[in-house]
Specification:
heterodimer, A: about 325 residues, mainly alpha, B: about 300 residues, 11 helices, disordered C terminus
Chain lengths: ~325, ~300
């Protein structure tokens, strides 16, 4: 098992290295000057040369790569070349907790919706309730997450004034301020995820409820609630966990867009702002960190899978 | 048939194909969701094609009625520059459908080709192709699209390239999986023994049998591609500013949602209705072509 984990971690690191390297070279292979953005406030070719030399952009690409990679290995992502030239490490370490808060809260909220919805749909198969939930699942999957965010702002912030429209408050300033700022974006991010998980739980439960051991348990006179929750549900969870892994990636992707609706300066907003400003170090740093989250989330799910189903053993 | 002659066999085969196709349609038309999806999609395509005829106003003309709420004159209201929202949304249909469909066709061609090659030839070619596909598989398509726009920059053609490439892995995986199963069938061995070339085997025997799952994947991907384009446009990474797309209309209206709800509601509704119809259709196709084992899995 530990050998397997070691191999997987190594594989994850290789994926990150490949992504970082690809992005580094592709950014430089494409026409367009990284200094274009800066030159707006410089506007003088000689000053541009000085800046170019200062940021090492006058050197051959492979030299830039090795210098950059050497620094990344030491945990230094460089400095932003836009605006106040803050260090990318600082930008990302400020953004990171926001994105994780958002993804984490939307994960919890969507499971709170998806698990009961999926269970009810499965138990009351083909009932009116089941059809209504199927329809909502379709809606949830077909709705752009950022638009749902806009609708929530229009309803709960602009008209009802129940919740703040935008921004982020760290958890250290109290639970309610943190929660009230995050609840709307979390719903926006989590809805599609919730629809997927609910449908997965439904189909997986239906399969398990048809199994012989459930019939035996029912024949023995087991009461239905215990049958569903204790006997069927844990086994129905196994296939769901794999999908949760894929869907967690969806949550992160959703966070990238939804952060921009709610003006939460998380990783997604940092990445998008970096792209719009052509701020290479920020873009590279953000892509590296976002990619790391995906790769390690996948890894975690695989390991979780073996924990939840002891029949699975990796070599 | 006592003495099958070549012509008659060919005619029969054609009739078979035709009846299979009509059976498809019969199945499809029995599914209420699919019919609803089809009707909406046909309407949307008609709207997209005739956008300049059916829109009441020029989508970029400023009519000096700024931020008007929906009325008889402007059924969906106007934006901050006094442009008619309905006309802009109708024109947006063109871009969204065009990008949704074209990106999937490109992704299907590239991914299908890679998957076929990897699955059919195996060995080192399979290794190289699948290493790349697995790498891309580790990330959601939308994130790949964002990464690629980060590299290429925004704009219509760049968005099409980025979204197409982002979906390549899905098609490559489906195609490869199909080839691996079909390759082992006896009729392939028979074709090979009778001296058919690789190209002929792939084109005449493997591709027709691998097409059903690819069609389903393609339909599903269209809905995701439309969502991806809307997301990119909303983030300012999409097409140029003078092209009204649904995501861009939403993005431009950002600061006015509290005063003008219609600017926030209708463009998103257009996206949702389109994606929902594609999803309905895709779901029905999946059932008909029986791509998955259990029908209960259907969403």
């Amino acid at each position: 098992m530990s050998r397997y984990i070691f191999k997987r971690i190594l594989g994850a690191l290789v994926v990150m290295w490949v992504v970082a390297t690809l992005v580094f070279f592709m950014l430089r292979a494409v026409p367009g000057d990284p200094l274009a953005a800066m030159l707006f406030d410089v506007g003088d070719p000689e000053a541009a040369e000085v800046l170019r030399a200062k940021y090492g952009l006058d050197q051959p690409v492979y030299v830039q790569y090795f210098k950059w990679f050497g620094r990344v290995l030491q945990g230094d992502l460089g400095n932003s070349i836009y605006g106040s030239r803050v260090s990318v490490n600082r930008i990302i370490s400020e953004a990171f907790p926001r994105t994780i808060s958002l993804a984490g809260l939307s994960f919890i909220i969507s499971l709170l919706i998806a698990v009961p919805a999926g269970l009810i749909s499965a138990i009351k198969k083909h009932s009116a309730m089941d059809h209504v939930m199927t329809f909502f699942a379709f809606l949830g999957l077909s709705m752009p997450d950022f638009w749902l965010g806009i609708l929530l702002i229009i309803l709960f912030a602009a008209n009802l004034h129940w919740l703040p429209a935008i921004g982020y408050v760290p958890l250290s300033e109290g639970f309610w301020p943190w929660f009230s700022h995050l609840i709307l974006p979390s719903i926006a991010v989590g809805t599609a995820f919730s629809a997927i998980v609910a449908r997965m739980i439904r189909s997986s439960m239906l399969e398990v409820l048809n199994a012989d051991y459930i019939t035996v348990a029912r024949a023995k006179g087991l009461y239905e609630g215990r049958l569903v929750l204790v006997h069927a549900f844990p086994n129905a969870l196994i296939p769901v966990v794999t999908v949760i892994g894929i869907a967690f990636a969806l949550l992160m992707a959703g966070a990238v867009v939804v952060e921009n609706v709610f003006a939460i300066k998380g990783l997604g907003r940092v990445l998008i702002q970096g792209i719009l400003n052509r701020d290479y170090p920020v873009v590279q740093g953000a892509i590296l960190v976002v990619s790391a989250i995906f790769v390690f989330a996948n890894l975690l799910v695989d390991l979780l899978y073996t924990a939840i189903d002891p029949r699975i053993r990796y070599e | 048939m006592n003495e099958p002659i070549a012509g008659a066999v060919a005619v029969e085969a054609m009739e078979d194909a035709r009846s299979v196709r009509s059976l498809w349609w019969a199945y499809l038309l029995r599914d209420k969701k699919a019919v609803a999806g089809l009707i909406v999609l046909v309407i949307l395509i008609v709207l997209a094609v005739s956008a300049s005829v059916v829109s009441p106003y020029d989508p970029n003309a400023m009519v000096f009625d700024m931020m008007e709420s929906p009325s008889l004159k402007h059924p969906l209201g106007t934006d901050d520059l006094g442009r008619d929202l309905l006309s802009r949304i109708i024109h947006g249909t063109q871009v969204s459908l065009f990008i949704g469909i074209s990106t999937v066709v490109i992704a299907l061609l590239i991914g299908g080709f890679l998957g076929l090659a990897a699955g059919y030839y195996g060995g080192w070619l399979d290794n190289i192709i699948m290493r790349y596909i697995d790498l891309q598989w580790a990330f959601p398509n939308f994130i790949i699209a964002v990464y690629l726009v980060a590299v290429f920059g925004p704009g219509l053609s760049n968005v099409i390239i980025a979204v197409s490439l982002a979906f390549v892995d899905d098609f490559a995986r489906v195609a490869r999986g199909m080839v691996l199963t079909i390759k082992e069938q006896q009729y392939i061995a028979a074709a090979r023994t009778s001296g058919a070339s690789d190209f002929r085997i792939i084109w005449r025997h493997i591709l027709p049998n691998a097409s059903a799952p690819l069609i389903v994947q393609g339909t599903v991907s269209i809905s995701y591609a439309i969502l991806a384009e809307a997301g990119l446009s909303f983030l300012g990474l999409g097409v140029e500013v003078d092209t009204p797309t649904w995501g861009l209309i939403l993005s431009e209206a950002r600061s006015f949602f509290s005063r003008a709800w219609w600017l926030g509601v209708f463009p998103g509704l257009a996206i949702m209705i389109t994606v929902l119809s594609v999803n309905f259709l895709g779901d029905a196709l999946r059932d008909i072509l029986d791509v998955r084992e259990g029908k209960e899995l259907s969403l």
